[in-house]
Amino acid sequence: MAKTTKMFKLLLVILVCSVSLNLVFVFKIVNVLGGGDHHYSLELSWTKRDAAEAEYVAAISCSGHGSAYMDGLILDQDGNKEPVCECNACYGGPRCSQFLPSCAADANGGDPYFLEPFWMENAASSGVLVAGWHRMGYSLNFKPFMVMSKELESHIRELHALVGNAVTEGKYIVFGVGSTQLLNAAVHALSPQNSSSPARVVASFPYYPLSKQQTEYFNAVGYKFEGDASLWKNKSDAATMNLIELVTSPNNPDGQLKWAQLQGPNVKAIYDRVYYWPHFTAISAPADEDIMLFSISKLTGHAGTRFGWAVVKDESVFKRMSTYVFLNTQGVSRESQLRALQLIKVVLEEGGKPIFDFGYTTMSNRWKS
Ligand SMILES: Cc1ncc(COP(=O)(O)O)c(C=O)c1O
Fold first, then answer.
1. Pocket residue to mutate for ligand 1, from 182, 215, 252, 277, most atoms within 8 A of Cβ
2. 274 CB under 6 A from ligand 1?
3. pLDDT digits (tens, 9 = 90+) for 90-99
4. How many domains does the chain have?
């Protein structure tokens, strides 16, 4: 009897070991194929050189006042190409260690470098290696006019659902070369196609200057910039005119949460929501306007990636905006889309807490100091 029990125990141990080994094996395969927690266990080959170069350049110290970049190589005295430090405006010298006391602060514009330390801390999850043959064609999946990554679109929808800052269900998404391109795409889409009277484009003062500059610059027959929205509130002929109100909320330059000033059957609003993220403002409710613009420039700080998106309710507006982007630039660079996808994946980690906490704390510390 004792012998049978011993045998049974031994068999049980063997069974448990075998099941565990199989589980480990299956887990490894899943990871290699792209599932799991992304600890890929492939032996690296063609990426090794690029990875080593990226780490070599990233390791160059610029005293915390600049960075060296892989496309910022210059010839040194011996004729070799070496990556150099590109210093922030108030620092100089080969390693950006010299403070330049006479430097002027630029209060007119802003590059969102305040998030750079966050991305340095998250170097391992946010880097993207682009294969030499990555999406070389004009269209994706060999489908004509398909220029937007479905994967990126679904991550954007997931992001809005997580943050609760915009309703995307039942709405369309258009990608643009930054929200800058989408701003004009939206103005174009809302303007009358065959009308002798152009749409009047207005914005309530103080407004983001590019709204005016861009609308005037394109000087299209379908629309023209007409200044401060509040001046149109009590105009009797405003009721019969096509009016497009640009609403930036939170606003640049004053951070106010703004609402459209003008109402009426011929009034349409474009909401620039690029700052409607938890590191800039409290998110009281998901925004649900007919046209809302967002941008990776303000969400993650990657203004140089030139990636933005519009959430659009109306199908005909969506189609006109998509045609605008297609004819203007044939969509957004596939490399930018790939990078935006990777960055948004990092934002989604831990429910967005790490990046939004970092952004909020950094800005409130700067405000206090
Ligand atoms: C209110 C507002 N909208 C749009 C933009 C431009 O964003 P993007 O980089 O997506 O073109 C800016 C940039 O500063 C902005 O302040």
1. 252
2. yes
3. 999 999 999 9
4. 2
